[in-house]
Amino acid sequence: MNPGIGKYLIGIGAVILLAGLVVYFLGDKLHWLGRLPGDIRVEGKNGGFYFPIVTCIVVSLVLNLIIVLIRKFFG
């Protein structure tokens, strides 16, 4: 097995651990996540539709930054 894969697995595990710690300790302070301006919400009397497009963009940018940092330090 390639030793480089081990570095990526360690990095991914560290990111998952960090995300878990953030959610565990700061979960009550992250109530704004999913309710950003620009998220699409349509509600009718029989149901509704919700698409958090701006939240998806923010999460994507943060994840890309994390991946770039992992590649820089572990790659």
TrEMBL record:
Q: Which UniProt keywords apply?
A: Membrane, Transmembrane, Transmembrane helix
Q: Which InterPro entries match?
A: DUF2905
| Pfam families to which the protein is assigned, alphabetical | DUF2905
TM ranges: 7-27, 47-70
**Residue stretches in coiled coil:** none
Could you identify this protein by its name? DUF2905 domain-containing protein
Provide the species name. Answer: Larkinella bovis
